[in-house]
Amino acid sequence: MTDWLQQPIAAIDDEARVAARARQGVLTKPPGSLGRLEQLAEAFAGWQGRVVPALSDIDIVVFAADHGVAARGVSAFDPAVTGQMIANFAAGGAAICVLAQRRDARLSIVDLGAVAPPANYAGVIDARIAAGTADFTESPAMQVGELEQALQAGRERVSSSAQLFIGGEMGIGNTTAAAAILAGLTGAAPAEVVGRGTGIDSGGLARKQAVVAAGLDRHRPSWDGLDGPAKALAVLRCVGGFEIAGLTGAFVAAAQAGVPVLMDGFIASVAALCAREIAPDCGRWQLFGHCSAEAGHRYLLETLDAKPLLDLGMRLGEGSGAALALGVIGDALALHAGMATFAEAGVTSGGANA
Ligand SMILES: Cc1cc2ncn([C@H]3O[C@H](COP(=O)(O)O)[C@@H](O)[C@H]3O)c2cc1C
Ligand SMILES: O=C(O)c1cccnc1
User: Fold this and answer.
1) Active site: which residues (predicted)?
2) Which ligand 1 atom minimizes the distance to the CA of 169?
3) Interface predicted TM-score (ipTM) of this complex, two decimals
């Protein structure tokens, strides 16, 4: 059922990438002066297989689900908020709705298992697996079949015609699950990777760290001695969440389909790590939109050797940080396409004393 995870990752067009770099070198500016904007244009050229890439077809998919571990008092909000927010996404009132509209991106919402689902599913994709995961301090968060369903639900949301995929999430308690996955995969201490999420107080933070430590102690035998895909799937199943598994499936499928992925914050980046553990080459199709204020994200980005485009102190999720970074990417591609070359503009190029 998860055989598809091992299908090959799409190749990058190095010729187009090198040609895009050459174009950057002859645009009317000192070579390198647009910094990372130049690298963005080059990366998109490699992904799209053309020297002058465009970006008009963007998919933002928000995966929503609840977490049994939320019963342990690890969030500042009630799990009922997950379903309420699904309705808010459908009505256009959430942050990601505003940003998706401003960026002209397609927004889809997928319910993988809110405990209190919305009254109607107009505008929401109903892919419910169960009413939330199990509390991982008591049992594995998911059954094997549930994990497979969540990964597959993510895969099904990837369209090979899209030029960019953004995965967002909504799930009260999911910063706890994400921290547990990160600690399980990297060996980091809970204190290093557990943050305040929606804004839990100091007592709650200590409780959250203890919950993550208890979950890891309980389930470590399930992945001890494993590595690579087997370990990642075991960690995801034991302490993960449906929406994090959905993101992981989508990120692997996108890299297989040749669709680059723009990562959001802490939760999405944990799914990016899971995707890389399952299919290492899929990292070549990943770009990181921002550094979240959630404790643990900076450490995770370093682990992934990823340099986020923005660092605005945001800690929302939903895909919002990635959606904001679209502005920078759009400008990078517009500069690459629209600037004149030295020859076209009759400007003398440098080199005399370079
Ligand atoms: C109204 C509201 C909207 C949100 N949108 C994203 N999140 C974010 O906060 C949650 C994770 O934090 P924790 O682990 O502390 O529960 C996730 O749902 C995440 O997407 C929200 C949270 C709330 C309350
Ligand atoms: O960075 C994130 O993804 C994040 C941080 C806090 C709460 N929800 C999401």
Assistant:
1) 318 (proton acceptor)
2) 20
3) 0.99
